[in-house]
Write a structure and sequence with these properties.
about 0% strand
Length: about 140
């Protein structure tokens, strides 16, 4: 349990830093003069940092061995998606029930299905390899 908490904190800090840098980059790309609106710049960096922190920190759900890949993926999706909407709507990143928000939801669902499929394939391959190793060991003992 201590390891999961340590990893959550470590990943959250990384997400905070990456999110802040992405927020700075997005602000820079959308602004004519980077420092014309200092409050807007600080708000964008802070909120982007928060958005980076929650999904990145919550990725530890993939390391909980008692959880299925599906449970971990759905949990992470709910955290990432929920965080995005809680932050994104007031920030104006997304509006509710228009074409862009529907496209974003579909994109996130497809991306998470791809993530799930890749994780599933990786674990299936690992399980096959472990089973072959066990089979070899059992055959050597006989």
């Amino acid at each position: 349990m201590k390891e999961i908490i340590k990893n959550t904190i470590r990943l959250s800090i990384i997400g905070l830093l990456v999110g802040g840098l992405v927020g700075l980059g997005m602000y820079y790309l959308s602004s004519q003069d980077l420092f014309s609106d200092t409050n807007g710049l600080v708000l964008q960096i802070a909120v982007s940092a928060l958005y980076g922190m929650f999904p990145m920190g919550s990725s530890v759900v993939y390391s909980i061995e008692s959880w299925s890949i599906t449970k971990a993926t759905v949990t992470h999706f709910v955290i990432a998606f929920g965080t995005f909407f809680v932050i994104g709507v007031p920030m104006g990143w997304v509006t509710l029930w228009d074409a862009s928000s529907i496209i974003m939801v579909i994109t996130m669902v497809v991306a998470y299905f791809i993530i799930w499929f890749i994780q599933y394939s990786i674990f299936k391959r690992k399980i096959r390899k472990l089973n072959k190793e066990l089979e070899k060991r059992n055959n050597k003992k006989m």
